Every structure is written in structure tokens, then in C-alpha cells.
Amino acid sequence: MADTATLGSTSGDYVAPKRFNPWPVVIFICLFTLAILFLAPTFGVLLSSVKTTRDIALGDLWAIPSSMYWGNYVEVLSNPAVHGYMLNTFLVAAPATAFSIALGVLAGYVFAKLPFKGSDLVFLLVVSGMFFPPQVILIPLFRLFNLMGLIDTLWPMIIVHTALGIPICTLLMRNFFATVPNPLREAAILEGASEWQVLTKIALPISLPAIAVLATLQFTWIWNDFLWPLIFTQSDEKRTIMLGLVFMKGQYSVAWGIQGAMSLIASLPTLIVFLFFQRYFIKGMTMGAVKG
Amino acid sequence: MNQSNTFWRVALLALPLSVFALIIIWPLLSSFYYGFTNWNGFSDNYDFVGFENFGKLFSDRLFMSAAINTIIWMAIAVVLPTVLGLSLALLIDSHVPGGPIFKTIFYLPICLSAVVVGQVWVWIYQPDWGLLNTIIEYVTNDRFNYAWLAKPDSALYSVIVAWSWQATGLSMVIYLAGLTAIPGDLLEVCELEGATTWQRIRHVILPLLTPATVVVVALSVINSLKGFDILYIMTGGGPFNSSDTLAMHMYNESFKKYLMGYGSAISVVLFLVALTIIRLYFKQLKKVDEIYG
Questions:
Q1: What pTM, to 2 d.p., does this model score?
Q2: Binary contact (B129, A61; C-beta < 8 A)
């Protein structure tokens, strides 16, 4: 993508090189200012996490600290509740990510390679699922899991996130499988391979990039989710990190430094995923959006 | 061959479609059903109350203000992330040094959770030492401690700005993707013909970005309907329900007051609004597809 962007704007360098062109400088300054404004909120959390609550209350939050105070991190990391929150979130996010991708692979393959009469309509129905606000299915799901006695376990979250991931996973996998040449599949089938073998031995190995895209997206969304844990959990032992963050805010109500350290630690997994897989992330976001 | 195709279709689709049907479609349909009952969330018996819940919507002052707030949120969501995202995309696409770094910076908020974003912005708006008031005090050189989130006049708008901060990154990358699709020689011709930068943007780039704009606007509107977490963190719909949205109102009625029948009626309204927007979106996409291929 970056390559074509360069291609698209080489015309900027085309003008007579001798004349001073103020535009790049102006644009750079504009962007730089905006970037600072944009980073300010995140930077504030970073600053707060290395300051004592007293300093923050005195109005020193936005100043560069003269010395680092690590006590907030010590406090958060030594709190066993935080370990529990992190573990719970991981126990929800990892299987739900895997399951939703697996289901998306199955459905996407059929929609791409074995279309049938009306399959476009079914596909559209599935994909449109990702656009609806979750409030629409909140109450019946609460009742369902309540009747099953699964409230205050991790299961409802795993199940719901698996299901909510189906639209985006199906969409991306179908679009990816559509690029796998048909003759490849036909040749394999003529040689006696079953559809399942085509899917697992031919289509899957070359679709690893699409799976990486989905894994980053799904993991981030599920990790960051707040609504479903809010509905489905009651005891502190079952809370996920984002819910824990809100509840601990009450516990450390004016300990802003500790809150800052907590936010940062809670965001660390998704930040790492984002920084390492940014390319996949952007690709997934734009693909999911544009082809919808 | 044909028969085996049918077998594989059924075999491969069975699991994904049944999970989807059970966890998405069935609850959706039962929301309509519960909308006609007075179920309280716990008891096994409830009565059918006909259209009572839906009738109540119109006399519910809080529902009306939540609906208006949702419309305000949508309206701002159409403008703010779109204009900001487009501007950033145009600036970054201009071959500026450090472009990829800027892109990362503006896109970064999207990987943060609404809970964290909400909390960060609570600090920005904090009356005594928040960044916003600190800056205002610095500029005006006067004491200023307006409580942005605690005043009914500003609470909703303050939350929407925080939300837009996060939403802008997505608009930007969609526009950037759109910009890469514009052929470079077209822009070169403009240059040779002596078009100014503004003319080039106004008459060539913007029209060609129409597909991206359709996507950005639609996503902004749809996502604004989903805006719940950040509101819950920042104001909880307060003060005095002044920043309630439909999603928030639905949550309050169902899970705070345990009026699940009435809450279902609100979720039905939410569904119908979302459905209308999504249909408009798909229709526009199709139109754009026909024109731009």
C-alpha cells in the first residue's frame, strides 16, 4: 500500500526543483502539531503512571517528571486481582479468536468456492451481523445463559465472541479464498482429493496472511470488550481486565497514578499486537469496511 | 460430483451457520418477542402486554432525550471523524517526511479499549488539573475550572469529542486506501494543465474518493449507534441523564431497573434504526460500485 502511495504522489516532486516550495514544511508542521495533540491523552496516562498521586493532585500531571516513581506499577503488578483479570481475559480472547476464525474459514470457503442458489443472500445476512449494535441481542442472551446456569463463568463470553466474530471472519476469508484459482481446486479434486483436503491442504496454507489479519483484529476487539463481561459476570474472580479496571477505579478512586499504570498494563497486550502487526491490522480494518 | 458438492456445503456450513443462528439471529428475533411482555429479568412468569411497551416509548421523557442525543451523536460522527480523517489522509499522502510515523500515531488510539480511552479523557476534562482547563488557564491567564463532564450542557459533547478522537484513525486509513487507488498520471496531468493544489483536491481527488466517503460516513454513523462503553465510563449517561443515548437507556432500563420487556422494546427500535442505516449503506455501496467499478 505504501508503495502505491508513493507512486500516486511523485507528481509532488515534479515541479521545478530550484524554486523554494513551502508546502512540505507547512504540511509537516501541521501534522506535527496535530500529532502532539493526538498523542497528548496517551502521553498523559504515561506521565501519570510514573508520578505520585500527591504530585498529580497538586496539578503537576502534565509536566515532564524530574524523577520516575515506579510505585504505581509495583502496586498494580503485585495485586493478585490484576493477575486474575489478565488470565480471565486471555482465557476468553484466545479460544474465541481461534473459534471464530475456524468458523469463518469453513463458511468463507463455501461462499467462495461452492456457491449455491441464494448463497449470496445468506452471505449478506451473515456479514450484516457485524453492523448491529450488540444491545439488540443483549436481553435474550442474558436469559439464555441464565437458564443454562452459565452466568458468572467465562463461557458466555467465549461463545458470544465466537459468534460475533463470524461475520468479519467469513467476509475476509471468503474474499481471500476467492483469489485462490479455481483450476487448482478442480485439479486436486480430479486427482481424488476430497473437498476437506482441498480446504486444509491447499486453501488454508496460502491463506495464512488473512488468518493473521483476523487474529490481530479479533484478539484486540475481544481483549478490549467491556459490554459482555459487564452483563455476564458478577464475582470479582470472573472479571476481565477492562471490567476490573473500572471496578478498581472505585477502589483507588483518587489514586490517579495507580489508575494510569493499570490502564497501561491493561492495554499492553493490544498495544504490542498493534505495533508488531500494524500492517495486518490496517488491512483488516479497511478490508472489513470497504467490502462490507 | 454435484452430490458431493451439496454434501460439503452442508457439512462445512452447518457449524458456522448454526452458531450464528443460535447466538445472533434467534436472540434478535426473541428481542421482538420480549418487547411485547413485561418480563422482569428473573421470574419465570410474565404477561403479554401487547403494544404497551412501545406506546410507553413516546411518553418516556428519558427515551425521547436519549433519541435526540443519539441523533446529535450521529450528526457529529458524520462530520468530525470524516473531515479530520480526510484532512489527515491528504496531508500524509502528500509525501511528507515521517508519513508512516504520523499514520501510526493517528491510528494508534484504535487499538485502545473504550474503557481506557474514556478514562484518559476523563482526565483531560478533569476540572482542577485536566489538560483542557490547564491549557485554557495558560492561554487566558485566569483561573478556570469548568467541570466539562458534570455539566448537562457539555457532558454529551465532551464524550463525543473523545469518541471522535478514537474514530478518526479508522476514517484516515480508509481515505488513505482510497487515495492510493487514484492513478498517479491523472494527478500529473492536472499539474501539467496548471491546476492549483486546491483545484486538484476539489475537482479530482474528492470526487474520486466518493466510495471511501460512503464507507467512512456509514461506518461512523453505525459505530455511533454502538457508542456505549465510552459513555458508560465517562458519564454513565449523566448528569441527570443528559448524555443518555439509546444504547445507554436500553441498558439502564433492562439491567438497572430490570424492566427487560421495556428494554427489549428499546432494543427493537435500535435494531430498526440500524437496519435502515445498513440498507441505505448497502444501496449506496452498490450505486458507487456501478459508477466506479
A1: 0.88
A2: yes
